[in-house]
Amino acid sequence: MTDAEQTLFGVLDKELDKRGYKPRDVKVKPISSGGANYTSKLFLVDVTTPKEDLKLFAKVAIIAGQLRQTMSADWLFATERLTYTKIAKFYENLQEKHNLSEDVKLKFPKFYGCNDEYGKETVIMENLVASGYKPFNRLKSIDWQHASASVEYLAKFHALSFALAKDFPEEFKELSDIKYEIGSQARDDEISKSMWEKIIKGAIAVAKDEHKSRVLSYFQNMPKFNSYNKPIGKPVLSHGDFRVSNLLFKARGEVSGISFYVYLHLYT
């Protein structure tokens, strides 16, 4: 059994005991994302109990060392936990409060628990694929049906941010006061330096001779990444990785999309 599997079984035992799923039979199957996910080990989990059977999906952190620091993985995992443990609950309560019908609600995967231990960060949720959801091929151009469903889903996510700010201003302020970190850290390490040198050399190599100096000048004077993500006006909780590889779709007459929230950027 791998370290990631041992970590997962520990979290599963704690969370399933808490929910009274005893006795039970638990089967864990490692899966591959085909290169779409490299920070975590992914698993499918089947739980059989007299109470009910569960189809679960789990992620266990495997990123370590310098790469973990370079990718700001501490922040990514913490924000993912925040999404499922707090933000999802806020949004679900808001939709109930305003009596939104089931067909228009923003829906999150059912959350079963997490682990915040450093290097063993774990998230467990329902397996949406077992409920008929499917990924879109990330190597293909997205079509109108899937694109429009995705934008509608994202619009609901942003709308709930404004509703949260209006109905629960103190809670929203607490969330939006979280400092935006990605791209703002001082990075003098050799890995980041060599990575950027490679990117710049590659860009200059393919540029026309008359454009090479302009390309170099652009990189030398480029603003920090986070300067592009600061709000012009009112702050909003915005998904930071809303792309095809993080979306699952299910056809119900028309396509409707739902996202596994990898992390949020909190624009303040």
Question: Care to describe what's here?
Answer:
The chain is of the alpha+beta class. It has one domain (3-187, 224-267). 39% of the residues lie in helices and 21% in strands. It has seven helices and ten strands. The strands form three sheets. It has a five-stranded antiparallel β-sheet. Helix 3 packs across helix 4 (144-167). The longest helix is centred in the first third of the chain and has 25 residues, at 73-97. It starts with a helix and ends with a strand.
Name the strands of the widest sheet in spatial order.
1-2-3-5-4
Main beta sheet: strand number and arrangement?
A: 5 strands, antiparallel
The 3D shape can be described as globular
Percent of residues in beta strands? 15-25%
Q: Radius of gyration, rounded?
A: 21 Å
**Sequence of secondary-structure elements:** HEEEHHEEEHHHHEEEE
Short account of what is shown:
With 268 residues, the protein is α+β, with helices and mostly antiparallel strands. It has helices spanning 3-18, 65-70, 73-97, 144-167, 169-176, 190-206, 212-220; strands spanning 25-31, 40-48, 53-61, 111-115, 122-126, 134-135, 236-239, 247-252, 254-259, 264-267. Strand 4 and strand 5 form a beta hairpin.
Features:
single chain, 268 residues, alpha+beta, five-stranded antiparallel sheet, three-stranded antiparallel sheet, 7 helices
Secondary structure: elements and pairs:
Elements: H1 3-18, E1 25-31, E2 40-48, E3 53-61, H2 65-70, H3 73-97, E4 111-115, E5 122-126, E6 134-135, H4 144-167, H5 169-176, H6 190-206, H7 212-220, E7 236-239, E8 247-252, E9 254-259, E10 264-267
Antiparallel strand pairs: 1-2, 2-3, 3-5, 4-5, 6-8, 7-10, 8-9
Helix pairs in contact: 3-4, 4-5, 6-7
Domain CHK kinase-like: 123-268
Protein name: CHK kinase-like domain-containing protein
Pfam family, one: EcKL
